[in-house]
Automatic annotation (TrEMBL):
Keywords: Hydrolase, Nuclease. This is VRR-NUC domain-containing protein. Gene3D superfamilies: 3.40.1350.10. The keyword ATP-binding does not apply. The lineage of its organism: Bacteria, Pseudomonadati, Pseudomonadota, Alphaproteobacteria, Sphingomonadales. One of its GO terms (molecular function) is nucleic acid binding. The keyword Hydrolase applies. Residues 1-90 form the VRR-NUC domain. It comes from Sphingomonas abaci. Its cofactor is Mg(2+).
Length: 106
């Protein structure tokens, strides 16, 4: 399972519960200049369910949690949101989806 596969699987599971979208960050070269977009470290998926803000970070395999991601998680939590680190260890993503739905329904 790729990171993109897991993000898509999580979006399919969370979207019917409220509003959820994929949150891309990165950089691209446009006309010879670097263009950066998105908030570095922000979660892969942002969602609003039942009036609560969720940040869902998808991780596959040995993918590590980076310092900017940790800082985003702390900021979101301080603001009253819920941050979910959805790590797939079973190769299908089902474990990450189950954890995410459990935290949302909490």
């Amino acid at each position: 399972m790729t990171h993109a596969d897991l993000v898509n699987k999580l979006l399919l599971a969370v979207s019917p519960m409220g509003l959820a979208w994929s949150n891309a960050t990165g950089a691209a070269k446009v006309d010879g200049r670097m263009l950066r977009y998105g908030l570095p470290g922000s979660a892969d998926i942002l969602a609003c369910v039942g009036g609560r803000m969720f940040g869902i970070e998808a991780k596959v395999g040995r993918d590590a949690w980076r310092p900017k991601q940790r800082a985003f998680a702390e900021a979101l939590t301080r603001a009253g949101g819920i941050y979910i680190l959805a790590r797939s260890t079973d190769g299908t993503g089902d474990d990450a989806v189950a954890l995410t739905l459990e935290r949302i329904n909490g």
